[in-house]
Amino acid sequence: MRLVIDLQSIQTWNHFRGVGRYSFSLVKTLLEQAKDIDFWILLNDQDDHDIARVRELFAGLISPEKVVSFAAPHAVNETFSDNGWRARAAELIRSHFLAAMSPDIVLTTSLIELEAVVSIESPFNRYYKSAVILYDLIPLSEPKAYLPNPVVRQWYYRKLESLHHADLVLTISDYSMRDAITRLGLDPNQCVNISAAADLITPEGLTSGSFEGDRSSELIPDNAVLYVGGFDIRKNVDKLVAAYARLPLTIRKSYPLVLAGKIGDVNRYRLMRVAKKSGLAADELHFTDFVPDESLVALYRSCRLFVFPSSHEGFGLPPLEAMRYGAAVIAAARTSLIEVVGSPDALFDPDDVASLTTLLDKGLTDEQFRARLIANGAIQATKFSWSATAQKALNVLMSLGAQSTIERRDAVDGEQDSYARLISSLAAINTRSKPTESDLVVVAQSIARNIDFLRNRFSGNDQSVACTLSGNG
Amino acid sequence: MIKWIVVLPKRLGRWMLCPLKALMMWSMREVLANPNMRARALSMLAAHPQLYQRLREFAARSGLSENTIATASAPNVSEASIKNLSPLASRIYADLKKAIPTQKH
To answer: Do B55 and B31 contact (CB within 8 A), yes or no?
Structure first.
């Protein structure tokens, strides 16, 4: 079975964030566990360094020749209105490239990527099976916060619509799966929860050089009330700051509030205002900014209480990481956090500042309660592993692949003139922005580079392209 | 000469916009350089998504935003590079030209 994994998710700026790390860990475990599958990794050619970096990341697990890149136009971020035509053209070129690779299955590790060229083609236009990982539908749940811009909204809805074309949607939590079925109307037979796991041993290539302003080396207090994660509104850190401010001063002095994670000026300014309004002194908020993995482990181990007040998550990696490293964890009783954290005693209503203050107080001062939280964390941490996640993914991919092999033989015989189809599909793109002469030149160069590459690497698979071109000549 | 007269109003309009564009770029650069002003501006713009989108695209086109310039700018290919295309790329380019109407950049 030939399984092509689209790993553009670790090429974009997301590569050091949740999606990139998830994709890396899952693919690494898949490569380790299924030696009999013919794996290929697909990237785009926007950055030459990426290909070498990805080959190095998976060294020993996949041969370097099987990490390939397709050429396509750059400047495909559709949230810039001028890029609409180029983005669609790049998607068609990717589909043409994929078809010539003759896969049984294409697994797309992330569909919602602004800088990458990702799409799920209609089953009528492809013979292979298409699987995709869906992380969450947070923008759909909170459109005011995440989709206020009509151009971004249009792009996001188009991507979600294409999920209906997938043969298999792999979700990272039970909550995400139910959300996809109810909100998007996906067929329950099409969706499988493969869950997630915590793994803080991230290789150099995924983190180094990501940030220049690493302030994690500053002294971070022990016994902290710790939060790790992003700082957008849904993370609900405002409520945590307000609830923390209601704790008695003696407790606050013993257990400082540490907010760890990359933070921009807008969010820092917002949280400083919340702190001031709630009566906290400026030095009572400790921002660490980006924290490398080794320091993060130390933070988890040394904190008094880990708090995760987020109102919406696709999975919720930080609380699982904290539990794995022995922290006492409390979290919001919302979305996937309920299945990750498990115990109802460790959950709180994220909209109720008073109840959060009560649980903070209990978690910091009640030793028996803390011990129960730590014991619960130890049990929960064993429920999630990359090995189990990869095995679940493999089981469903293998059965999908078996269907593909049967249906593919008939389809391949009818697969003629893929080049002519590509040109007519490019001509049929209907976007507000139209291509320029330069766009056509870049598209021609990209297709030519791909055809040359495919002829060399997959000789015989793309004969229709060769025939059509020589016929035209 | 006739062409020069016909396009004169368009050119005059463009000249008049030049100082405005420069003023706009200067203001945006000042705001972006100041964390507090930037934070306030972004929270205000959150209520006006259309305006935010226009400014964002303007910033990207003007090279004010380093993060987005690479993804926002369209390719600019010279006539010389069209002549230097490989035989295969030339043939594909000819097919594309035949099939797709283009716009002037």
So the answer is: no
- Please name which of A176, A198, A188, A206 lies closest in space to residue A336, comparing C-alpha atoms: A176
For residue B32, the surrounding DSSP H or E stretch is helix B8-33
Whether chain A has a CB inside 8 Å of the CB on B73: the answer is: yes
Tokens in use for A377? 């964390």
Inter-CA distances, A275 with A244, A249, A257, A272, Å: 9, 14, 11, 5
Q: Does B104 touch chain A (CB under 8 A)?
A: yes
Domains by residue range for chain A, with CATH: 2-197+386-472 (3.40.50.2000), 204-383 (3.40.50.2000)
E strands, A146-234, in order: 168-171, 191-193, 225-228
In A, minimum Cα distance to B70 occurs at A75
**Do the Cβ atoms of A443 and B96 come within 8 Å?**
yes
Dump pLDDT digits (tens) for A146-161.
887 788 888 999 999 9
Tell the residue number behind the tokens 């979700």, with chain if given.
A171
Q: Is A17 helix (H, G, I), strand (E, B) or coil?
A: coil
Interface mutation target, options B52, B68, B92, chain A, most CBs of A under 10 Å: B92
CA distance A356 to A274: 16
pTM for this predicted structure: 0.83
E-only strand ranges, A214-290: 225-228, 257-260, 285-289
3-state secondary structure of A332: strand
ipTM score here? 0.79
User: Which chain B residue lies closest to A76 (C-alpha atoms)?
Assistant: B71
How many CB contacts within 8 angstroms connect chain A with chain B? 130
Q: Which residue of B has its CA nearest to A73?
A: B75
Q: Give, for A348, the enclosing helix (H) or strand (E).
A: strand A347-348
Structure confidence at residue A448 as a pLDDT band (50, 70, 90):
very high
| Contact criterion met (CB below 8 Å) for A316 and A308 | yes
Q: Is A459 exposed, middle or buried (0-12, 13-18, 19+ CB in 10 A)?
A: exposed
